[in-house]
Amino acid sequence: MVTDDTIAIPQLLYEAVSRGKREWEQTFDSIGDLIFITDTNHTISRANRAMARHCGLRPEELPGRKCYDLFHDLASPPPYCPLRSLKEGGAPQAEEVEVAKFRGFFDISVSPLYNDEGTLAACVHVARDVTERKRAQEYRLELEQQLLQSQKLESLGVLTGGIAHDFNNILMIILGHCMLAKENQAVAPVVGHLDQIESAGNRAADLCRQMLAYAGKTPLVQTQIHLPALVRDMVHMLQPAFNKKVIIECDLDGDLPNLTCDEGKIQQIVMNLVVNAAESLGERGGNVKVTLRHKTVLQSEQEVDCFGNSIPPGTYLCLEVADTGCGMDQETRKRIFEPFFTTKFTGRGLGLSAISGIIKSHEGALQLCSAPGAGTTFSVYFPLPPCCPAGDQVAPPLPSPSKAAARLEGTILLVDDEEELRAVGCELLTSMGFKVIAASNGSEALAIWQERKSEIDLVLMDLTMPELDGVETYRALREDTSTLPVLFCSGYGDQDIRPCIGEDVHAGFISKPYQLNHLQRALAALWENRMPHAAEGFPA
């Protein structure tokens, strides 16, 4: 007997099944990941809306298509296809795949579906777009590499500065004895040999200066310069040395404020960048464009230099040197500022690594944009104003060589912890006409000063010493006297001492190794500041 209840039961079952199917389809289509089901021949039987959207198709257009065609634009499965492994009895797989068609990266997992006999019948593919995550990881990795490179170069700079300092001290001993030998009227053949020794020593000293420039530790002799004129003159000077197929174009904004900087070092930057740009063009030639303009960096722009350091907001003079040369790949860009690294030929020296140190010493920034076949652009940022620490002062004019060469008299307290340097220093100063009292460190120098201050006219002192270094000794002396002339000398630059001495006209600095006439002029300048109308001792 058929009742209403027996008719209603199938209807209820049908509605429940339909509702479940509808809910499953809604759930399937609401998932943001790309989901599709294939048979063992890679043919899609079902796909969600996210998959259709990514492929630019309607959901009903996907069944019957091959997954490798839709996903990879390939005519056959790629070698890394996870379905191959499953068909061979392997375990379910998940891996990250770069999909060129979609210009992104996907985490793809494949799960098997078996029939009642336990045979593989189909596979469920789930592809999650991880492109943004991947790019964020790559960006973070790039920043970490830039930071490591920056730390590496900074450490190398410290090492380079230390080596240059020690070599300068050794050169001071060699050149000092050489100068003494020449002063003692050596016979003509010997003088010739001494000239060769002096020439070689001076070349080594130039290399040390380049090493210190790389380390950002060279002394700055600052002046006000009109940068457009300097750049134009440098380009005009360099142009004849290049291949005639190299065309240099200048776009220099002439209405720019003067820059407070070390003119010689800025010339070195311009020369290195222009020469490197011209050489990158090779025999076929090409264009080099030198641009100088005013640039404002805003807080919101978050500009970074080529070492990954932020460029502070502010106003800059921006020098750009761009070429149409071969460009650089990522590996070359990473190493281009390493000392002695070159893509051309051996013996290139410190080049770009040195200018990075010069820019650092001017509190500037350097950017690099380059790609293989797309040329290279270097951008140098010089901050306005000022471009250097307040402690760095323009060097006072020195007396003329004729005055400095006069016979000098007085007593100098020579302070140096290296015995050989003290010995050669004593002989040099004695040959110039001074009486010399020697001390091996700052503590000994202070003790001698307290005992014999009435005799001492000037202090010539090394910067780096044990017990009390030069700065500490200077401060102790200044507590007792504000006018005693103090001349610092060091194989390093003057960055460490300039902020300490500030506006003190009775203190100065000279780099090791120094020439005899340079020392005479520096000593005479300090004496003049102390006694403008001196009738004896140092020449007025």
UniProtKB/TrEMBL annotation:
Q: Which SUPFAM superfamilies match?
A: ATPase domain of HSP90 chaperone/DNA topoisomerase II/histidine kinase, CheY-like, Homodimeric domain of signal transducing histidine kinase, PYP-like sensor domain (PAS domain)
Q: What keywords would UniProt list here?
A: Kinase, Phosphoprotein, Transferase
What EC number is given for this enzyme? 2.7.13.3
What are this entry's molecular-function GO terms?
A: phosphorelay sensor kinase activity
> Residue positions of the PTM 4-aspartylphosphate?
D462
Q: Where is the Histidine kinase domain?
A: 162-386
Q: Known catalysed reaction(s)? A: ATP + protein L-histidine = ADP + protein N-phospho-L-histidine
NCBIfam families cross-referenced by the UniProt entry: sensory_box (TIGR00229)
Q: What is this protein called?
A: histidine kinase
Species name: Geobacter sp. (strain M21)
Source organism lineage? Bacteria, Pseudomonadati, Thermodesulfobacteriota, Desulfuromonadia, Geobacterales
